[in-house]
Design a protein that fits this description.
Blueprint (H helix, E strand, L loop, with lengths): L3 E2 L4 H21 L5 E11 L4 H4 L4 H12 L5 E7 L3 E9 L2 H8 L14 H9 L5 E9 L14 H20 L2 E7 L6 H11 L4 E2 L3 H15 L3 E3 L5 E4 L3 E9 L8 E3 L5 E2 L9 E5 L2 E7 L4 E6 L7 E6 L1 E5 L5 E2 L3 E11 L2 E2 L8 E7 L5 E6 L1 E3 L2 E7 L5 E11 L2 E11 L13 H4 L7 H7 L14 H35 L2 H24 L13
Parallel strand pairs: 2-3, 2-5, 5-6, 6-7, 18-26
Antiparallel strand pairs: 1-19, 3-4, 8-16, 9-15, 10-14, 10-16, 11-12, 11-15, 13-14, 17-19, 19-20, 19-24, 21-22, 21-25, 23-24, 25-26
Helix pairs in contact: 1-11, 3-4, 3-8, 5-6, 6-7, 6-11
Length: about 525
């Protein structure tokens, strides 16, 4: 996919072109294996002793139960726990009713706390089982790599494991089709590791700032793996149009909130003890999950207090589609957008004439930072969105509406400064959007002898650049995986039209002519020679 930077400053533009060129060179060889569209999900939960303090209410268990509830039937899923050792309380298997019950029974295993934290071993163990599709590892940790002293002198042994994880294991995982969505459960976590590990494998990084944000992060990851349509939920009200086969309501709320009530278009009232016919209503202290088959068309409403991140998903013959986009983006990166309504697996040729599709970029607070109206081109709608100057968690909201049909899709992303691609700028600045990013020159002089807080000297700017070059293959692999379907479609269309080859040839000849002209125009430097003298 043709990601590009639009910059006004010459130096930044050249840096963007350099990065784009390097990515193009390595992307073709970074991913060699062919995979199908049947990803599996493997959850890796930190059970080190610090989780006793950071998760007293066992929110990790609630998030795990929510994730298993949201996964489609037949998905391969499993759970691993880690501290000093790695255990598998729920081995990899297909999700069904029995599997969901097993996941609910895992709470005791998540409080068998251990003393140390071996993140590298946990990732290796969870990723080793083969798969038929992309493997998505969801890593939840609240700390840093902390190995037993018996493994070697500290902190050298911890630092060595961290380097191996980021410089060897992460690129190898990306090349094998393994995506790591890393979640930092507290500020004490290694935010830079979480950010870089996710970015280099194509995953979504997240920093948890509240109990609700953990559940929302898990739901966002599921929606990235298994995209689903939504309808707008405004002040507890939503509309179901004719033809919708089922809807699901994921409703977040406080633990002490009153039980929720669902009111149908005809005024019939339902609750968890008396759900709609054929519906399944599951309750948790922090969320309700309701699935309603064959719902009546019309306006529905919810009574009770729910959070703003609650959502209504719908399933029907018509769906909203969007070409793949990366999980981590950078300011001034231009994202090409191609969207369409599909009926079955094909674009809907009879889509409403008045159909309009727009894309909004929302920040972590839900405020619209950028809005784009896509332009219709046949059965598809196209446009582009330039990422504004912001940092941290964000969402893309795709909205389609026409002749009574309304569909939405949300895509969680993380915006990180372009300089964060130099992994030595390890401040975790892309996760929470709070930490500032000083210039590399300022950091180089300030930290020449010691760190800014008097600690040991950090990696030099040269070291960070070398790490950045080392990470390019893994980063390109993630971009290649996300963009490959779009590139294949565009390549097929290009090859089938002789006009495209003519244009490409003309562009190449023009570029070669400009380079030759510039070469001839560059004056030769005269060398002034002096004879030696005494």
């Amino acid at each position: 996919m043709a990601w590009s930077w639009r910059v006004s400053e010459r130096g930044r533009g050249q840096a963007g072109l350099l990065l784009a060129g390097l990515l193009c060179l390595v992307a073709g060889s970074a991913v060699a294996q062919s995979v199908d569209e049947s990803p599996d999900v493997r959850v890796i939960v930190d059970v080190s002793g610090s989780m006793r303090t950071n998760d007293p209410d066992q929110l990790a268990a609630s998030a795990l139960e929510l994730l298993v509830l949201l996964l489609p039937d037949g998905t391969a899923a499993g759970v691993w726990t880690f501290g000093e050792r790695v255990d598998s309380p729920l081995p990899l298997g297909e999700v069904d009713a029995g599997r969901r019950a097993d996941a609910t029974a895992l709470r005791p295993a998540l409080v068998e706390y251990q003393r140390y934290t071996d993140i590298e071993a946990a990732l290796r163990k969870a990723a080793e089982a083969p798969a038929n599709g992309w493997r998505h590892l969801v890593l939840l940790t609240d700390g840093v790599i902390d190995l037993p002293p018996a493994r070697g002198a500290k902190p050298e042994v911890d630092d060595a494991s961290r380097r191996t994880l980021l410089e060897e294991l992460a690129p190898a995982l990306a090349a094998r089709g393994v995506v790591v969505h890393a979640i930092a459960f507290s500020d004490a976590a290694d935010l830079a590791l979480v950010e870089r590990l996710s970015r280099s494998t194509g995953g979504l990084p997240a920093l948890i700032t509240s109990p609700e944000s953990l559940l929302s992060a898990f739901a966002d990851i599921v929606e990235r793996i298994f995209p689903a349509d939504r309808v707008p939920l405004v002040e507890g009200r939503f509309s179901i149009e004719p033809g919708v086969e089922a809807f699901s309501a994921l409703l977040f709320h406080d633990p002490d909130a009153r039980p929720l009530m669902l009111v149908a278009p005809d005024g019939t009232r339902y609750d968890a003890r008396n759900p709609p016919p054929g519906a399944n209503w599951q309750m948790d202290p922090r969320f309700d999950l309701l699935r309603v088959p064959d719902p009546a068309s019309g306006k529905w409403r919810l009574e009770g207090e729910i959070s703003g991140d609650s959502r209504i998903g719908v399933r029907g013959a018509v769906s909203l589609q969007l070409t793949p986009l990366p999980a981590v983006v950078h300011p001034e990166l231009t994202l090409p957008l191609v969207a369409w309504l599909a009926r079955g697996a094909e674009p809907w040729s009879a889509a409403p004439e008045d159909l309009a599709i727009s894309v909004d970029l929302l920040d972590a607070d839900g405020t619209v930072q950028m809005e784009v109206q896509l332009q219709r081109q046949g059965e598809r709608f196209v446009g582009e969105l330039t990422v504004p100057e912001l940092s941290g968690a964000a969402r893309l909201r795709l909205h389609a509406e026409g002749q009574g049909i309304v569909r939405q899709r949300y895509l969680a992303i993380n915006v990180q400064p372009l300089l964060s691609l130099l992994p030595g700028a390890e401040q975790g600045q892309g996760l929470d959007g709070q930490a500032g990013l000083r210039s590399l020159g300022e950091r180089f002089h300030t930290d020449l002898a010691t760190g800014s807080d008097g600690e040991a000297m950090p990696d030099s700017a040269a070291d960070r650049f070398i790490d950045f070059i080392h990470d390019l293959p893994a980063y390109a692999a993630a971009l290649w995986r996300d963009s490959r379907p779009w590139l294949e479609r565009r390549g097929a269309a290009f090859a089938g039209d002789p006009r495209h080859w003519a244009v490409a040839g003309l562009v190449i000849l023009t570029l070669l002519s400009l380079l030759l002209w510039r070469h001839r125009r560059v004056p030769r430097r005269r060398i002034h020679r002096e004879d030696p003298h005494v």
